[in-house]
Amino acid sequence: MFESLKKKLTSFLGLKPKKEKKTKKTAAKPAKKAKAKKQEEKEVEEIIEEAEKEPEQENKPQDVLQEAKEEKGIASVKEEGWFTKLFKKAISVKLTQLEFDEFFQGLEITLLENNVALEVVDRIKESLAKDLIGAELRRDEAEEFILKALKKSILSILISPPDIIKQIKEKQGVFVIVFFGINGSGKTTSIAKFAYKLKEHNISSVLAAADTFRAASIEQIQKHGSNLNIPVVAHTYGADPAAVAFDAIQYAKSHNIKAVLIDTAGRMYTKANLLKEMEKIIRVSKPDLKIFVGESITGNDATEQARTFNEAVGIDGTILSKADVDDKAGTILSVGYITKKPIYFLGTGQEYKDLKEFNAKDVLKHLGLEDEDEE
Ligand code: GDP
Questions:
Q1: What CATH number does the domain containing 301 carry?
Q2: How many other β-carbons are positioned within 10 Å of the β-carbon of residue 317?
Q3: pTM to 2 decimals?
Q4: What confidence score (pLDDT) does residue 164 get?
């Protein structure tokens, strides 16, 4: 496991790690605990609010992790004593560009190791620099100040997802969602989980087996339909996916079903082929939402897939599956930044219930900037 950002920050600053929050929490009285939690929640809300006000930045060309590390000379980064050095002569200092660069180098490697794409690291650096360079830092408040700025810069990258259930309920007529993503990314499973979630909210749905290419894909979605007692519209293998989507929408209209969830084939395409096939499905089904499903564990792969699908079809949001497996924060940040679209859900396991509404605070937790139990 990679070192958490908070640990890294603490060790880089040269501070003694603070007493574990958990220990403090067990000892705290319930009322006190609730008050502290409320205060923490308020702070995070404020950070999110501030972060969302930040203007969006242009994408910069991306590099691979290794190149990035070499380019930035990370191997030679000295990690200790920055804080001590900074406050050697005074208890309050104004941070210079040089001091900031030295500080950021220490964090850069952790971000890259956490699968954060280089262009996102640069974006975080830019935002942090704005808040820290020239800022008056007091020795006793510096750590909190820097941590807050870091959280803000990370949150500024993410867009909060709209309430999808509300959107579906409020639409007059059938609500159509097309799901994209490469084979094995968890697309079909995520569709089934989403259908289960709709069912929990008393929203009826029909599944469209528009992946007519991959062997067993039709049986797979039919199995989910039968487990969940949800109808599935399917043709034969090799049939036109757009025709399946069209039939599913007709089925929904004639059976008074609210949502149509369209599974699509996830072959590794060249962009031109992808565009052609996807365009037809979109033209025919006129979806209310186009959702990209990617694996949170594949790091930069998912980031590149999101970029390709976004350029090809213009996605409206993302579901990142397998967030229960490992190493998700970097992918979340990178995909969010590249697509400039919200992450709707994280897949957190193989059961139908394992689809968690995305919350930006999750990213802070996964990066170790907030405790896992701060829920
Ligand atoms: P598709 O080819 O994109 O439709 O992918 P599938 O839905 O068939 O999923 C591929 C594999 O990933 C299956 O074994 C799923 O059970 C598994 N999977 C999907 N989502 C998750 C998740 O959130 N967590 C875990 N651990 N496994 C998942």
A1: 3.40.50.300
A2: 21
A3: 0.80
A4: 97
